[in-house]
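Every protein is a chain of amino acids, and every chain bends into a shape of its own. The protein below has been through that process, and both of its lines are reproduced in full.
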Amino acid sequence: MFFYLDYFYCLYEIEETEFVQSAMNHFTELKLTHHTFTKMDHIVLQFCIKNCCKLESVCLENSTFLTEDLNENSPGAREWPHRAQHQDELHHSSIYLLCQALKASNCNLKKLSLGSCGLTAAGFGDLATVLSTSRSLTKVDLGANNPGDAGVQLLCEGLKQLNCKLQSLRRESRLPKTDHQETTLQTSAIETPPARKEP
């Protein structure tokens, strides 16, 4: 089942949480690939994900998340509700709002795909906080992102947390060319066993 961004905007404008939850109650999958998300798109996406309790899979592969300032001169900025509350989020990573939605208490997401989304170390840091708190997320695909050593370290810190339920992590990175080397592709998959139950 596919969601469409225009539909999300309509629900966001309504501003009635109970209605939005009812409208999205039958959907379990969100797929929006090869898309350039503006900051407003991201805000709308966050709102709808937070209010879709039965959502189990989100795929945003090959997408870009912009972080432009929603100032008074932005086209249509004054028309959008809750604009002011997002002004202090401009300096976070490009997927900060998405991660905030995934950390919501009613989020039951099991699978997240963010391959080829240009994620940085800061983005991996935000994902680490999701992994360390999510009660349901078990499979994550981060193929073809290059967060550097710092990003990988931040992600590993999230994986070490006792509350992390992740069982499968896929990550690919494309190494930069050197004078005497061709670009190569490294693929790694980490399979982690389910957390052991306390005796």
